[in-house]
Write a structure and sequence with these properties.
This protein is α/β, with parallel strands linked by helices. The protein has two domains: 292 residues, ABC transporter type 1, transmembrane domain (ABC transporter transmembrane region fold, Up-down Bundle); 210 residues, Rossmann fold, CATH 3.40.50. Helices cover 62% and strands 12% of the residues. It has a six-stranded mixed beta sheet, with helices on both faces. The protein has a four-stranded antiparallel beta sheet with strand order 2-1-4-5, with no helix packed on it. Strands 7-8 form a two-stranded antiparallel ribbon.
Length: 526
């Protein structure tokens, strides 16, 4: 039995004790002394009911918190599993809406609706089980009038569910659009599109407001119907009991008990009906969460494996085939990289260079062929261990709001001040103060500074594999030279794959591999 169900049973007991006390005092003129055991029992029941109610609330809140944490962890795992390739076509605002707002919308359902539903399945029947032996007429009135409550909930709830679905879909789109505008605010202003975007956000907000009010109207209508049915039913019971008391066909004690129990009988059902709106909202949110967790990319993280890798490992691509949306990118790629060898991949756009890095990072799932790490399939490795040993630098690294120190420390959470300073020096970023503020996406820094801070982050990892995707593509000559020198130190003793369009950027690499049409076309000396 749950805390909530216990509180419901104690409520019936409390009502019975109060009815006996009032009956003894008013009709039997009982003294206080003989009633002391009843008073003590009533106080004890009230205290137990209060404790059970508090326990029910705390248990429900704890359960809701655990469920939300598990769902958010599943969403984060899903985002990690999808990788940058799948996330590129998904609005960040929609992802944030699902992982934050949609998950939070389940709180009222788990912490309030489900416990109340459990109480509503026990307490009304418990009250009826006591009322019918006392007075079958009042019991019949309670049963017949209570039938209208679930009927009104179902009729109004179907409409509310449909509108809630539309509301959550609209909110997801609006969240995605708003965040996209904020992230691209400078571009919007440069092209003079601020007024157009403002008008579009105003229009979306107006539609959302209208839809929200329509959902609230249904919720208020449902509450009104529940209150009306309950009030009418209690009035009928009161009138019938009153007339029967006047005519002497009913004793006061059972009549008083029924009048005390009837409001609690309907309060349980009314509360469930009021929370039914939370259920509708939670169902719409849950559908979005389920769609996010099950839809999108077909990538599924590999199970934890037992195959260990050496430092640095050998990498081999064997007849690897990969395509995006039916368009072939790799058409039978075979490439072997020796332990500690530094290989640069070059070739025209669309040759499949970045896809090689995505497959090694497990940002995309292998379609045909095999990728072996020290002779073992990449899928058999422990992905946590594999990624821990990989240093990955894209063309535009992600920096977060904070300080330079905070962004470098992301490479290794427990890094000391000395480790951070050393990493900054190795990345040629020591001229930037560690306390210097960094805006979201590296605002306040030049492109070269942002790239060197990202490199410093990698020096903290002590990697065995380094994957670099055109790290100097957007840099001026001075910054590119600094980054190139840092890369030479970072990749020393590491198995390295560097993607570049410019052969001169491959200085320090052991081998320059030319790709074209998704295969290896030749090898050059850097």
């Amino acid at each position: 039995m749950t805390f909530g169900e216990a509180a419901g049973i104690l409520l019936v007991l409390q009502t019975g004790l109060l009815a006996r006390i009032i009956n003894a005092v008013i009709f039997h003129h009982s003294a206080v002394g003989p009633l002391l055991p009843l008073f003590a029992a009533a106080l004890g029941v009230i205290a137990l009911r209060a404790a059970a109610t508090i326990g029910a609330r705390r248990t429900a809140a704890s359960c809701a918190a655990r469920v939300k944490n598990q769902l958010r962890a599943a969403c984060v795992a899903r985002i990690e599993g999808m990788g940058p390739l799948a996330l590129a076509g998904t609005r960040a605002g929609e992802i944030a809406h699902v992982t934050v707002d949609a998950v939070e919308a389940l709180d009222a359902y788990i912490a309030k609706y489900l416990p109340q539903r459990a109480i509503a399945t026990l307490l009304p029947f418990t009250i009826l089980a006591v009322v019918f032996p006392l007075d079958w007429i009042s019991g019949l009135v309670l049963v017949l009038t209570a039938v209208f409550l679930p009927v009104s909930m179902i009729v109004i709830g179907d409409q509310a569910h449909e509108r809630n679905q539309r509301l959550w879909a609209r909110l997801a789109l609006m969240s995605g659009r708003f965040l996209d505008v904020l992230q691209g605010l400078s571009t919007v202003r440069i092209f003079g599109a601020a007024r157009r975007e403002t008008a579009e956000i105003e229009r979306a907000s107006r539609e959302h407001r209208v839809l929200t009010m329509s959902v609230l109207r249904l919720a208020f209508l449902s509450s009104f119907m529940l209150e009306l049915i309950s009030a009418v039913s209690i009035a009928i019971v009161a009138v019938i009991s009153g007339f029967r008391l006047l005519h002497g066909t009913m004793a006061f004690s059972p009549a008083y008990f029924i009048l005390l129990a009837a409001p609690e009988y309907f309060l349980t059902l009314r509360t469930l009906g009021t929370l039914y709106h939370s259920r509708m909202e939670a169902m719409s949110a849950a559908e979005q969460i389920q769609e996010f967790l099950e839809g999108g990319s077909s990538f599924t993280a590999a199970p934890r494996g037992s195959v260990r890798i050496t430092r640095p490992p050998a990498i081999a691509f064997r007849e690897v085939v990969f395509s995006y949306g039916g368009a072939p990118v790799l058409t039978g790629l075979s490439l072997r990289i020796a332990p500690g060898e530094r290989v640069a991949l070059t070739g025209p756009s669309g040759a499949g260079k970045s896809t090689v890095l995505s497959l090694l990072n497990r940002f995309a799932r292998l379609q045909q062929g095999t990728i072996e790490i020290d002779g073992a399939p990449l899928e058999s490795l422990d992905m946590g261990e594999w990624r821990q040993g990989v240093a990955w630098l894209p063309q535009r690294p992600t920096l977060f709001h904070g300080t330079v120190r905070d962004n470098i420390r992301l490479g290794r959470g427990g890094a000391s001040e000395a480790d951070i300073a050393r990493a900054a020096a190795l990345a040629r970023a020591d001229e930037i103060p560690l306390d210097a503020p960094v805006g979201e996406s590296g605002q306040g820094l030049s492109t070269g500074q942002a790239q060197r801070i990202a490199l410093a982050r990698l020096f903290l990892r002590s990697p065995s594999v380094v994957l670099l995707d055109e790290p100097t593509a957007h840099l001026d000559a001075v910054s590119a030279a600094l980054v190139t020198e840092s890369i030479k130190e970072l990749t020393r003793g590491c198995t390295t794959v560097l993607v570049t369009h410019r052969p001169e950027a491959a200085a320090g690499m052991d081998r320059l591999v030319v790709m074209g049409g998704g295969v290896i076309e030749g090898t050059l000396t850097p």
